[in-house]
Amino acid sequence: MSTLTTSASAPAKGRHFNGLPFIGPSVTVLLIWMIVPLVMTVWFSLQRYNLLDPTVTGFAGTDNYEFLVTDPDFWASLTNTLVLVGSVLVITVVGGTLLAVLFDQPFPGRNLARLFAIAPFFVMPTVAALIWKNLMMHPIYGVFGAVARALGLPAIDWFADYPLLSVILIVSWEWLPFALLILLTAVQSLDREQLEAARMDGAGAMAQFVYIVLPHLSRAISVVVMIETIFLLTVFAEIYVTTAGGPGNATTNLAFLIYARALLQYDVGGASAGGVVAIVLANVVAFFLVRTIARRLEV
């Protein structure tokens, strides 16, 4: 009997597999890839380091952070970052939800319409910014200007009169297809029998949308908000190509402020302090978003 027990338990012990030697090198490289830049950024944020004046060196302590938080440009860039992220999220989530419901309905050319609606997501940010700047929003050569003149209205110089709104429209155009793709997939997974039962009970289209479709999309919307927020905090190319942070600091966000400090003012210490603040902000936002999504997934 003991021999049988030993032979039966041997395969169970043999199935134990230690994968640490295989995943260890990858995890080590990943940690080095993440920790070394972070440590260097924190270190430079505590130093006096300006590329234009090599004689200014030494330990700065919290001077770079104090200068950063007392600089009006920092608070303007923080406000612009929050306005940009919040506005794009509202436009993409609301627009993506409505388009997802629309493209879920059968109509001629639906597949082609879906393709055209999702295509902008694959356009590089620099190319998208150039297209909108020169072909759409230019007051003389742009499509918007031509339409305004055809209606007898004065053409709008978007990047001079409404710079932040212009950037929001460009970024929303880029990210709306992503929201549409995720939400359309979620809409297609909705139980059609549930909608049919609601229709037979007398529920109209609006009631079905509010009480059935939207609750079903809540998890997908949470995922869209989390992923977009992480990327929208680092919007740079669209601002650099169109407005260069101006006029003044009207479109300067945290990412562009860090760039300006590091590569225009050559203040490596101040730029590193801004980078640390941006890292803290991104992690705080990610923490709350992940908790919210995990709570929804548990429901």
TrEMBL record:
One annotated GO biological process: transmembrane transport
ABC transmembrane type-1 domain ranges (all copies): 78-289
Transmembrane regions: 20-44, 82-103, 115-132, 162-185, 220-241, 270-290
A Pfam family of this chain: BPD_transp_1
Topology with respect to the bilayer: Multi-pass membrane protein
UniProt keyword annotation of Transmembrane present: yes
Main location: membrane
Subcellular location: Cell membrane
Presence of the UniProt keyword Cell membrane in the record: yes
InterPro entries assigned to the protein according to its UniProt record, in alphabetical order: MetI-like, MetI-like_sf
GO CC, any one term: plasma membrane
Keywords, sorted A to Z: Cell membrane, Membrane, Transmembrane, Transmembrane helix, Transport
Gene3D superfamilies per record: MetI-like
The family this protein is said to belong to: Belongs to the binding-protein-dependent transport system permease family.
Identification of the protein by name: Sugar ABC transporter permease
Natural source organism: Methylobacterium indicum
